[in-house]
Amino acid sequence: MKKNLIITILTLFIFSCENTPAVIGTTLGLEGKSSDIIAGNTDHVQIWIDYIDAHNERNLDKIAEINSEDWVGYPPNGNVIKGNEAHIEFLDEWFKSPANPRWTVKWMIANKGEDDEEVMQEFLTTGNDITFIDEEGNEVVENHIHDVMFNDGKIKTIYVYSKPAPSSVE
Question: N or C of the chain: less Cβ packing under 10 Å?
């Protein structure tokens, strides 16, 4: 009897833990209100991998298909690119340039949290390296973090943060 009671209590505890979202952080809203960041939809991982593969393959149709029509990008240079069409035009020009950008995905964290209006926002935060040729013809590697907002399985917004990759000291 005692053994059955312990098994029942453990089963209920495990079941309740499995249905509780894992809190992985906190957001602070405009007025200082905090809300939990919880583990997000890991299906976004494959979408991101497909998206980066499409960039490396110069497949603008696939990129446009993954973007939402109201796509917005915030590159590290401070510019803002608004709209799927504008993004594709930007990439087409960049891909045709001597820069020849190539990306390597290093890590990803699926997460979600409420915005100031208490609407749940889905993100994938990713670490990626980009390799390109600069204006002087030198190969450059930068470490990028992309904070990618998803809406209905499409990429809606990307915030890109960049720093030079560390050079190796021998």
Answer: C
Which tens digits make up the pLDDT trace of 115-153?
888 889 999 999 999 999 999 999 999 999 999 999 999
Pairing of strands 154-164, 67-74: parallel
Q: Which residue has the higher pLDDT, 97 or 33?
A: 97
13 inside domain = no
Beta-carbon neighbour count of residue 117 at 10 Å? Answer: 7
Taking only the tens place, the pLDDT of each residue in 38-85 is 999 999 999 999 999 999 999 999 999 999 999 999 999 999 999 999
User: What CATH number is attached to the domain comprising 77?
Assistant: 3.10.450.50
CA-closest candidate to residue 158, choices 125, 132, 127, 130? 125
From residue 94, alpha-carbon distances to 99, 120, 141 in Å are 7, 34, 16
Interacting residues of 158 by C-beta distance below 8 A, sequence separation 6+: 71, 72, 73, 74, 146, 147, 148, 149
Tokens of 4: 């059955």
DSSP letter for each residue of 58-81: T-HHHHHHHEEEEEEEE-TTS--E
What's the structural domain count of the chain?
A: 1
